[in-house]
Amino acid sequence: MYSDRDHELKNKNELLVVSFGTTSSESRLHCIDSVEQAIRESAGDDWIVRGCSTSQTIINLIHKREGIRIDSVEEALQKAKISGSKYIAIQPTHLMKGLEYEKIKVIISKFERSFESITLGDPLLSSEEDLVRVVTALARDSAEFDDSETALVFMGHGTEAAANDIYRKIQELLISKGMCNYFIGTVEAEPSLEDVILAVDKGSYSRVVLRPLMLVAGNHAVNDMASADDPDSWYSRFTAAGYETSCIIKGLGQIPEIRDIYAEHAKKAVSQAIHPDYSDYL
User: Which of 148, 194, 197, 215 lies in the 20 to 30 Å Cα band around 65?
Assistant: First the structure.
């Protein structure tokens, strides 16, 4: 794929894997670190792969609690500039092109003249093919809970950006595939928890299985979704509605097929960094 000249650039290329982050060390290990490793394996030896975060709050909390210092995107790019890196590829682990993705684009604009090229990869849900692959992976990973009496409810984060429409598209895709016992909701946008409860109530389900539609099973999954002590949690609300409710605390980063999608997007970003007309080299 690459020319002899490209191989001379070994250790002068950097692939930054950008996540919002999580303060849960276990979820970080099983979700973020596992995605970074999949990307590292796909990138090849000519690329230094490093993780960084878009959330300064998460960065500060991890440093305070664990003594681990994670770079912000701007810090990581500044280090790459100082080290003399020539080509930069950035692969976000975000699900969609929401506000965090837009934040990365703003930061990149400050460094466009600092490198020979800098490219931004696609988040998880960026094409119709991505949606189909993610839905297929979710169905396979939830197969043991999938029966006529169980509603499988996935909790997404939600965003104020137009990209929030992705959740509606996923729901429509599920219905088109006959997976009518699968439901999508969000914590901070639409569809809301109330919307999902109303949709589930229209069926003849006796059980509800909740799981996060997020890269990591962090605070949202543990508190907003699964908390038995919070009367407003999804678990408590569905239980109060009369359903036998259980929770799966598992982030998308723990699913191999999901990691594969991120790795493929990163490989594309790497190709674009070296060869802007990357399609000629695939």
Answer: 215
Catalytic, out of 7, 30, 157, 275: 157
Domain 4-124+255-281, architecture per CATH: 3-Layer(aba) Sandwich (3.40)
Q: Which residue has the tokens 């088109």?
A: 176
pTM > 0.85: yes or no: yes
Q: Please say whether the dihedral angle defined by the alpha carbons of residues 187, 192, 193 and 199, taken in this order, is positive or negative.
A: negative
Give the model confidence (pLDDT) of 243-267 as tens digits.
Answer: 999 999 999 999 999 999 999 999 9
Summarised one tens digit per residue, pLDDT across range 100-135 is 999 999 999 999 999 999 999 999 999 999 999 999
CA–CA separation, 144 vs 152, rounded Å?
Answer: 11
* Structure tokens that stand for 64 in this block: 């305070």
C-alpha neighbours within 13 Å on the C-beta side of residue 71:
15
Q: Let me know if the fold of 4-124+255-281 is the same as that of 128-252.
A: yes
- 128-252, CATH topology level: Rossmann fold (3.40.50)
| Helix spans in the chain (H) | 4-7, 25-27, 34-43, 56-66, 73-83, 99-109, 128-141, 165-176, 193-201, 219, 234-240, 256-274
Of 76, 105, 74, nearest to 14 (Cα)? 76
Q: Angle at the Cα of 105 (from 17 to 40), degrees rounded to 5? A: 15
- Residue 157 annotated in active site: yes
